[in-house]
């Protein structure tokens, strides 16, 4: 799906996010399963009245006559009862990072724009599949949450929260092309940390829930990694890392003009040592996510700011290796 002609590379609007309901309906993204593919309701182990037929067994006193399997009964001459697997609902919780570090890009669109589009797409897919969906937003003002809800109202509320998040209004101001490069690699002073957000998320996540974390994971330190691992041990976790090419690989040594807040700044890459340090720091971030993705209930993906996140998630849903099969490191470093 190509970007609509009226879509901005630095901000999202409510109509734009609402339009993603169409691609969501045709995408097959209605489910999130352990392999990282997206799927709908989960079939539980309990047997009883439910949505999905399991098997037939001889009729026993007390069985509901409405469950009699008439075909097997006619064939065998003995009454049989249908058994069903109970379909158990697990809410989808979206945690979206929209802190200042996400309002950055050297090409393509802001990381925050991709994050909002991915969250809206997955929210529409979830409610269209009959799931409840909730959201946690990390912004410069703190952590805010919306409880899981069902239906179009829940998806619309989530889209409004995304479009109205602090940062998008300022980013949409003419001339604000990118924030200062230095702000792209550190959280705002006094703002929420990923560790704190994960602690709040763990407190409201019940076993079996599906959690999707979308952001650049720039402060995924050892403590946050442990908390994310704990979350993945009782919930199904998908981590979508959105990054700019500059974060993975600094340009050759030199002085580079950077636009920010309507002004200009200079990015200096003074030495090969600085370039190596940057590459190793980003590699350490990927290594922590690779560790989380090694858990049986977790997966992780990467998305460059030049990519179409809708197409990326659709390819992942279809199981295509070019979207979900690459190691994180190869996928992040391989973009030219």
Could you explain the architecture of this structure?
The protein folds into 2 domains: 14-40 and 89-333, Rossmann fold (3-Layer(aba) Sandwich); 42-87, no CATH class. 36% of the residues lie in helices and 24% in strands. It is built from 13 helices and 11 strands. It has helices at residues 14-19, 21-27, 70-76, 111-128, 151-163, 168-171, 194-204, 222-232, 245-248, 272-293, 309-317, 321-324, 328-333, and strands spanning 42-48, 52-58, 80-88, 92-97, 132-139, 142-150, 210-215, 236-243, 254-260, 263-269, 298-304. The strands form 3 sheets. It has a 6-stranded mixed sheet, with helices on both faces. Strand 9 and strand 10 form a beta hairpin. Helix 4 runs antiparallel to helix 5 (151-163) and helix 7 (194-204) packs parallel to helix 8 (222-232). The longest helix is centred in the last third of the chain and has 22 residues, at 272-293. Mean pLDDT is 79; it is low at 31-51, 174-189 and 320-326.
